[in-house]
């Protein structure tokens, strides 16, 4: 693949197609072609500060989130560590991009932060053993699993609590594994208005990325562009004393070493339908999230 072929693949409507193309080639070839594309005519690409970034994958087929995957988070919630990975879904309409303003639904009165590391699938995976799971990963990004705590009524309400419109800000970029470093010791933190609320890393995971992919792929086919969010750290607002929740105007930053910083502003409650990040494609200032590495 040369950079002319690649240029036809990079646009907001075709990130999944790009990942599929990449899975059929070699990531070193893809990233080299991407660099050639930028060097060939850098004027084609605006500054990141001049555009609104969509999530790295604006329209994933699936978003699967691990619950209670941190030892210390289980302790603060007061529940035993799960014996097997368990997951809940979010929808494409749950996504929001880097520096997006999230407008919670009027029913959401206790919005909480949950900074997380997320994995983007790069090739079809079914019944994959853990030792081969990373072969199917395109890269790493960040997801903020915003949660409507006032809607919790037990496990049966998990989707209502977690999967509301724009309750999954994601970005700022997709970083390939060779750029991230040790996935078993990846540090990240969540800040609200500049104050650190969560600070830890993947060393606290109960189930690692490889185990999560192996567990899901036992029964679910993972395809390029699928997002797996790996669960949050201790320090959520629900478990603080007194409890803390997000308010209009708050700035939430999730910062991960080697990945970047995802910024989200909390806006006013809104009953206006939010159709997901792809709804903004017609705006020339909206671009797909970047791919690094």
How does this structure look, described?
The protein has helices at 3-7, 15-24, 27-40, 71-77, 158-162, 177-180, 209-217, and strands spanning 52-53, 63-66, 87-90, 95-96, 100-102, 111-112, 115-121, 137-144, 147-148, 168-175, 187-192, 195-201, 227-232, 251-256, 260-266, 286-287, 290-292. The protein is α/β, with parallel strands linked by helices and 293 residues long. It has a single domain (3-292), classed as Fumarylacetoacetate hydrolase, domain 2 (Alpha-Beta Complex), CATH 3.90.850. The longest helix has 14 residues, at 27-40. The two termini are 17 Å apart.
What is this structure, in a nutshell?
The chain is α/β, with parallel strands linked by helices. 18% of the residues lie in helices and 27% in strands.
User: At the fourth CATH level, what is the homologous superfamily?
Assistant: Fumarylacetoacetase-like, C-terminal domain
Low-confidence stretches: 1-10, 279-288
Going by helix content, strand content and strand pairing, the class is alpha/beta
Question: Could you give the count of β-strands?
Answer: 17
CATH-level-2 architecture:
Alpha-Beta Complex
The residue fraction in helices comes out at 10-25%
Shape: globular
The biggest beta sheet reads:
8 strands, mixed
- Tell me what portion of residues adopts beta-strand conformation: 25-35%
């Amino acid at each position: 693949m040369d950079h002319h072929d690649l240029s036809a693949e990079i646009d907001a409507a075709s990130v999944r197609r790009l990942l599929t193309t990449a899975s059929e080639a070699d990531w070193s070839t893809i990233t080299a072609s991407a660099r050639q594309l930028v060097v060939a005519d850098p004027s084609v690409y605006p500054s990141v500060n001049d555009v609104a970034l969509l999530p790295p994958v604006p329209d994933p087929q699936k978003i699967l989130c691990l619950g209670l995957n941190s030892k210390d988070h289980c302790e603060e919630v007061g529940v035993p560590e799960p014996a097997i990975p368990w997951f809940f879904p979010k929808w494409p309409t749950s996504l929001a991009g880097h520096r997006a303003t999230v407008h919670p639904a009027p029913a959401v009165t206790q919005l909480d932060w949950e900074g997380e590391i997320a994995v983007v699938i790069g090739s079809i995976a079914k019944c994959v053993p853990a030792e081969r799971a990373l072969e199917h990963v395109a890269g790493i990004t960040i997801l903020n699993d915003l949660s409507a705590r006032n809607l919790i009524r037990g496990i049966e309400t998990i989707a209502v609590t977690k999967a509301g419109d724009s309750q999954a800000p994601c970005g700022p970029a997709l970083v390939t594994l060779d750029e991230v470093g040790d996935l078993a010791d990846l540090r990240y933190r969540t800040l609200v208005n500049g104050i650190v609320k969560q600070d830890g890393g993947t060393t606290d995971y109960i189930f690692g990325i490889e185990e999560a992919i192996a567990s899901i792929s036992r029964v679910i086919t993972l395809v390029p562009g699928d997002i797996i969010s790996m669960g949050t750290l201790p320090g959520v607002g629900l478990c603080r004393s007194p409890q803390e929740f997000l308010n209009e105007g708050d700035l939430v930053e999730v910062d991960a070493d080697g990945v970047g910083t995802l910024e989200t502003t909390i806006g006013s409650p809104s009953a206006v339908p939010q159709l997901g990040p792809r709804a903004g494609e017609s705006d020339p200032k909206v671009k797909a999230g970047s791919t690094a590495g």
